[in-house]
Amino acid sequence: MSPLRIALVAEDYYPQLGGVPEHVHHLARELDSLGHHTTIVTSNMREQGAEAHADVRRIGTSLVIYANGGVARITVGWRLTARFEELFRKERFDIVHVHGGLNPTLGIVAPRAAWRAGIPVVATFHTWFPRSIGLRLLRRPFQRMLDRHAAAIAVSRAAQEAMARYFTAPWEIIPNGVDTTFFRPGLERRSPGPRLLWLGRIEPRNDLGTVLAAMPRILERHPEAHLIVVGDGPWRSRMERAARRLGPSVEFAGYANGGRPGFYRSSDVYLCPTTRASFGVTLLEAMACGTPLVVSDIPAFRDLAGQAHAVFVPPGDPDAWGRAVCALIDDTERRATMAREGRRVAERHAWPLVAQQVLAVYRRVTG
């Protein structure tokens, strides 16, 4: 089979951290390793840094907005559709794969540009939401767009069900992946007491506040417990103020990317109190490192981790979180079992396996 020229379009990409940038970056890397040529197409962000992929094109300017309980991005700029079409024609792509289908802005602009250039469009849907007034109002024009997509992929059953409330499509589920060589078990130096980890973007839907509110109960039973908060975001200063009463038992480590495996491996328990999620990339990373989980009891997390691989707690209930964390700290045998079983779950989501599923879709829609 001849190599494909593939455009992966994403509103969110590095230096922004999150599930979509991770997905796009690793998918591009795997496709390149299989002999295809992959270009990541995104927008210009204020926080620029060295490009993580060899071929990244940036069109327009990314603006940060508040949406769905957290930070999101839209792209603005003159003649966006025309500029995307010009790039697609110049690079002679065989496929345009949009991550964030129907999302403003690139989820709408990029497909239009691709169709003008005669290129098939595959869209992956990464988000879960309880309801959307915008999608209800725009159901008809968006359904017409979706009908023109060559394939519609959801990263989870939760993401599929969110979109299926408004649209019909031949949905396929292809999950997020994890780099099981980068994220792997290992021996890291640990502090004397129980070490707890919260890792993510500090914003409302990731609900660091519930973990901070649970810490007094945890410290009452385990006075040497230490919570390390890894990540940054617009609500960081607010959370730091809330944590002051807890003294040195809480540490804010700031932004981290390449160092994430070390944080997972040096932790006894990973805490993910997120209230809204379509998948759970950080759960996969933690499981790949053999770190036991205490997570929100939401559909996406149950689908991914299953009852045997995590402790599930009602979102937003600090007392329940405190009890669950203490119980898992006390249960050494269960933590050891979760570490082994979680690694097996991660291996089923290794990126080479996921990339082959995506590539099969590309081959089908390109004939």
Which architecture name of the largest domain does CATH use?
3-Layer(aba) Sandwich
**What is the global morphology?**
globular
The total tally of domains equals 2
Instruction: Assign a percent range to the helix content.
Output: 40-55%
In what range is the share of β-strand residues?
15-25%
The CATH H-level homologous superfamily of the largest domain: Glycogen Phosphorylase B
Mean of pLDDT: 94
Point out poorly predicted stretches.
none
Give the strand order, joined by hyphens, for the main sheet.
4-3-2-1-5-6-7-8
How do the helices and strands line up, and which of them pair or pack?
Blueprint: E1 5-10, H1 19-33, E2 37-44, E3 56-67, E4 70-76, H2 80-91, E5 95-99, H3 106-116, E6 121-125, H4 133-137, H5 139-148, E7 151-154, H6 157-164, E8 171-173, E9 195-199, H7 208-221, E10 226-230, H8 236-243, E11 250-254, H9 260-265, E12 269-272, H10 281-288, E13 293-296, H11 299-305, E14 311-313, H12 318-330, H13 332-347, H14 351-365
Parallel strand pairs: 1-2, 1-5, 2-3, 5-6, 6-7, 7-8, 9-10, 9-12, 10-11, 12-13, 13-14
Antiparallel strand pairs: 3-4
Helix pairs in contact: 1-14, 2-3, 7-12, 10-13
From the structure above, extract its key features.
367 residues; alpha/beta; Rossmann fold; 2 domains; 8-stranded mixed beta sheet; 6-stranded parallel beta sheet; 14 helices; 40% helix
The gist of it:
By secondary structure, the chain is α/β, with parallel strands linked by helices.
Describe the structure.
The protein has 367 residues and is α/β, with parallel strands linked by helices. The chain folds into 2 domains: 5-177 and 351-365, Glycogen Phosphorylase B (Rossmann fold); 195-347, Rossmann fold. 40% of the residues lie in helices and 21% in strands. It has 14 helices and 14 strands. The chain has helices spanning 19-33, 80-91, 106-116, 133-137, 139-148, 157-164, 208-221, 236-243, 260-265, 281-288, 299-305, 318-330, 332-347, 351-365; strands at 5-10, 37-44, 56-67, 70-76, 95-99, 121-125, 151-154, 171-173, 195-199, 226-230, 250-254, 269-272, 293-296, 311-313. An 8-stranded mixed beta sheet has the order 4-3-2-1-5-6-7-8, with helices on both faces. Strands 11-10-9-12-13-14 form a 6-stranded parallel beta sheet, sandwiched between helices. α2 packs across α3, α7 (208-221) crosses α12 and α10 (281-288) packs across α13. The protein starts with a strand and ends with a helix. The relative contact order is 0.13.
